[in-house]
TrEMBL record:
ATP binds at residue 46. Keywords: ATP-binding, Kinase, Nucleotide-binding, Nucleus, Serine/threonine-protein kinase, Transferase. GO terms for cellular component: nucleus. This is Protein kinase. Belongs to the protein kinase superfamily. It is found in: Nucleus.
């Protein structure tokens, strides 16, 4: 099978992996499907050249450390599943959502914000078992210091929480809960609920759904530059979701509304979502013991120290991360 140039070096230099096909290409690299002859299973291999960017090097190292830490959490992606299904049944929706919430509860208890939840990063097998993927934008240790200023340019715009759109830098794990609401809406209506081409359109469609946020909310969460844009959007009245979406069960409409709450302080979290009537109608709410999950250490401060000579130090750190659990590239040797 012909291989893209991105992966030639990997498969030419060892016989552990067999190339099985191209999966996709993103902003930071390419991904292919491969068969691991040593473990006898299929894997995805991501090829990223992080030597050209200090920021990208930091993201890749952070992703590796987070994935190692979350090794035990619980495949077409959800987007393809949504596009191919003529109808998605309520119990299928409930089962998928239940698993997303379980996985996200684990992630949040470990002190991590995913920051890029969208259907493309939710993976399903033929039995609708869920895995959450792509931790390239994830951030650890988020609740250690609320004053910490974080980038608001995270999460694909259609799934981005209002506080991110408003450029509020002190956000929390609740941005992931808004993204879950966007994913749930996409499952229900089989199309992105907040699809837009511009920032203005994004705000307008959210305000149409949710009503225009209060002046207090805008004052507390919007940057000065964003306020000018926000006040250009027409005013919309809030319509309760149970009335707005009469074709879906009232419990489901209520849960969707709780995910898409403007105020992150009152937006539902994973614990309460797992106890919601829509979920508990079929599933027992799992007790997730925070003592079982040690938060990921915050390595970002050490990352910031290798700006000048980051190529050498990034290579060294990457080797340290991978060598601990490494297996031979050529298992027959």
């Amino acid at each position: 099978m012909n291989r893209p140039g991105d992966f030639s070096e990997i498969f030419d230099k060892n016989n552990r992996f067999e190339y099985c096909g191209h999966i996709g290409k993103g902003t930071y690299g390419s991904v292919c499907l491969a068969f691991d002859r040593f473990k006898k299973n299929y894997i995805a291999i991501k090829r990223v050249n992080f030597y050209n960017s200090h920021v990208l090097a930091k993201r890749i190292l952070r992703e590796i450390r987070i994935l190692k830490h979350l090794r035990n959490i619980q495949n077409v992606n959800l987007l393809i599943f949504i596009q191919k299904k003529d109808q998605i049944y309520i119990n299928e929706t409930r089962y998928i959502l239940f698993q997303i919430l379980q996985g996200l509860a684990f992630i949040h208890k470990a002190g991590i914000i995913h920051r890029d939840l969208k259907p493309n990063n939710i993976f399903l097998d033929c039995n609708l078992n869920v895995k959450i993927g792509d931790f390239g934008m994830a951030r650890s240790n988020f609740y250690s210091d609320r004053r910490d200023i974080k980038s608001t340019y995270v999460t694909a715009r259609w799934y981005r929480a209002p506080e991110l759109l408003f450029k509020y830098p002190h956000y929390s794990y609740k941005i992931d809960m808004w993204s879950v609401g966007c994913i749930l809406g996409e499952i229900l209506f089989q199309k992105p609920i907040f699809a837009s081409n511009t920032y203005y359109d994004q705000l307008k469609i959210i305000f149409e759904w949710n009503g225009t946020p209060s002046n207090d909310y805008i004052r507390n969460y919007a940057s000065t530059s964003m306020k000018n844009l926000i006040y250009r959007v027409p005013l919309y009245s809030k319509i309760p979701f149970e009335a707005k979406f009469a074709t879906i069960p009232s419990q489901l409409a209520d849960l969707l509304e709780k995910f898409l709450e403007y105020d992150p302080e009152t937006r539902i979290d994973t614990a309460d979502a797992l106890k919601h009537d829509f979920i508990t109608e079929c599933f027992l709410s799992p007790e997730i013991n925070i003592n079982l999950y040690c938060p990921v250490p915050d390595h970002d401060k050490t990352f910031n120290e290798f700006r000048e000579n980051f190529r050498d130090e990034a290579s060294e750190l990457l080797c340290e991360e991978l060598i601990e659990k490494s297996l031979p590239l050529n298992p027959e040797e």
